[in-house]
Amino acid sequence: MNVDSFLTRTGWGDADQYPLAGDASSRRYIRLCSGPKRAILMIDPQDDTPRFATIATHLSSLGFSAPDILDRSDGLMLLEDFGDAQFARVIADAPDMEIPLYEAATDVLCHLETEPLPEGLRTATPQVLGQMIEPAFTHYLPALGITPDQSADKITMRLTDLLERHLPQETVLVLRDFHAENMIWLPERSGVQRVGLLDFQDALIGPPIYDLVSMLQDARRNVTTDCQMVTIRHYLGATGRSADTVVPVFNLLGIQRNLRILGVFARLAKQAGKSGYMSLIPRVWGHIRTSLATPVAEELEPLVLDLFPEPTPALLNKGAT
Predict the structure, then answer these.
(1) Angle, CA 190 vertex, CA 188 and CA 191 arms, to 5°
(2) What angle do CA 26, 29, 32 make, to 5 degrees?
(3) Residue 68 burial by CB count (10 A; 0-12/13-18/19+): exposed, middle or buried?
(4) Contacts of residue 224, Cβ cutoff 8 Å, sequence gap at least 6
(5) Are strands 37-43 and 69-73 parallel, antiparallel or unpaired?
(6) How far are the Cα atoms of 28, 47, 116, 136, 156 from residue 59, in angstroms, in the given order?
(7) Which of 17, 19, 113, 237 has its CA 20 to 30 A from that of 134?
(8) What is the pLDDT at residue 66?
(9) CATH 3.90.1200.10 for domain 87-319
(10) pLDDT digit string, tens, across residues 264-307
């Protein structure tokens, strides 16, 4: 994986390079500027580029805005540059854009539900989703000085059972990291193409509503209550689903997703030296508490609250070191 040779071969050897903020993985991103031309260089030591390319090609074939792949080699990829209009940045500058942007992103999810599924992706069954919370027990709690007991198995089993009871039978393409830092506003385009999609290489086949949870229970920004309510209402209207079925699933997937995130963030802090992720834990825990307080989680709430402490600053400082 020789970056200089790759850039020379692809005609970008003399381009100016501007590092961009990375994500939770080991991937790095560099904006390349050569005169009026722009591109993004992805440097991926784990080489998820084949999977990214597969999903990008699938999304583009369906009419969504995935980055064009300009060139690719082992661990390296040249991508179309969507610019800097991340949803999070646009909303920070213009708060009145929050609801329109989230409605546009919801339209992407609703349209995606009607499209054929790509081949070769893992399916997130209730059993798989239940096992995916393991990092909460193997990384997050130990970082706080807590050794999980049989309560961990009870939580996993109870959550899996609830998911089996409530998840819809149909499956969709789940992009997984569908949040305001991975969506780019492209207002010059039309329809669902106004939402530029990024960071989807970990996509799964899974339940509808998962990506709606990713978007509204964002670990990195507080989505306003008004926006949450309007977005869910927009989703219900566009899909024809009922609130009686969507809301319980939303909350169960919220618990599942956010328990997993606790563990992932703790692992990043401990193993990758990214201690800043611990500062996001209180928001993630808040999402868990909100979803636990709903009727569908009545059997699960006491199990989780008995094992998981409130993430006080003292505990989080311990976990960050």
Answers:
(1) 145
(2) 160
(3) middle
(4) 98
(5) unpaired
(6) 23, 20, 10, 32, 33
(7) 113
(8) 98
(9) yes
(10) 999 999 888 888 899 999 999 999 999 999 999 999 999 999 99
- Each domain of the chain, given as residue ranges in start order, spans 3-79, 87-319
CA 170 centroid distance within chain: 21
Place of tokens 């199990």: 303
CB of 265 within 8 A of CB of 278? yes
The model's pTM is 0.94
* pLDDT for 176 beyond 70: yes
Residue type at 132?
M
Per-residue tokens: 101: 């942007």
CATH for 3-79?
3.30.200.20
Category of 132 on φ-ψ map: left (φ > 0), alpha (ψ -120 to 50) or beta: alpha
- Is the Cα torsion angle 241, 287, 65, 43 positive or negative in sign? negative
- What does residue 36 show for φ and ψ, rounded to 5 degrees? -80, -10
- If phi over 0 gives left and psi between -120 and 50 gives alpha, with beta otherwise, what is residue 77? beta
Residues 6+ apart with CB under 8 A from 64: 108, 111, 112, 192, 193, 195, 197
Question: Which residue type does 16 have?
Answer: D
244 contact partners, CB below 8 Å, separation of at least 6? none
